[in-house]
Amino acid sequence: MIKMNKINKSYVVNEDEPLYVLKDIDLNIEEKEFTAIMGPSGSGKSTLINIISFLDRDFEGEYYFSDQDVKEFKDNELSAMRNQNVGFVFQSFNLIETDTIYENVELPLLYRGATHRSAKPEVLSQLEKVGLLSKKDQLPSQLSGGQKQRVAIARALANKPKFLVADEPTGALDSKTSDEIMTLFKDLNAQHGVTILMVTHDPEAARYCKRVIEVKDGQVIG
Ligand code: ADP
Ligand code: MG
């Protein structure tokens, strides 16, 4: 599904000395994989994941997604690729605090043109998958951190993306809650075939993944 060849990326921080953040990254990810990208802070993990999830096309090298050349996409095509293919989960959950749990999960479906009525079965099914059906009428502020992250996962899955991208999804959680979220990811992958690509610097979280890619100083080292 994801095929990257010799991806290089640099940021220009001062004119004479660009900062090389990704160096000759080769990466293949197939459907139904459950992969962790691991590495110390500043090693280029988020930069890499932003390219993979069509947020950043300003790189050198080749990126083919399902045999389509990502470099060839126009801006509007790139954002369409993102909307159709990627579900995002963040460290900070990014829920809408004034909306109920139900409404948070419903939102991406409405955004894609669904009606309240047509969205309902999907919203309920995603909430059930993450074990939060009983919380559907509550507000995010009434939930624990782990529960909030479950809502974010349900929301990310609502549009049936090709893959889930999670940047430090357990970064704001204690270790017990982190284990619960990783168990949920593991079940979603094993039982529902969800392709998951996560970034973490926590080896305990990475243990749940089927594959671990180690990044250091912008290079894949293992
Ligand atoms: P990680 O996610 O592994 O912590 P990042 O991909 O966020 O690493 O960052 C890699 C390097 O690129 C760091 O040195 C960071 O300071 C730098 N960097 C990230 N984003 C930018 C940016 N927009 N402009 C300049 N430098 C950046
Ligand atoms: Mg990062």
TrEMBL record:
Keyword line: Amino-acid transport, ATP-binding, Nucleotide-binding, Transport
One Gene Ontology biological process: amino acid transport
Gene Ontology molecular function, alphabetical: ATP binding; ATP hydrolysis activity; transmembrane transporter activity
Keyword Nucleotide-binding (UniProt): yes
Similarity annotation: Belongs to the ABC transporter superfamily.
Protein name, UniProt field: ABC transporter ATP-binding protein
Domain annotation ABC transporter: ranges: 2-221
Superkingdom: Bacteria
Organism this protein belongs to: Xylocopilactobacillus apicola
One of the record's GO cellular component terms: membrane protein complex
InterPro entries to which the protein is assigned, alphabetical: AAA+_ATPase (IPR003593), ABC_transporter-like_ATP-bd (IPR003439), ABC_transporter-like_CS (IPR017871), MacB-like_ATP-bd (IPR017911), P-loop_NTPase (IPR027417)
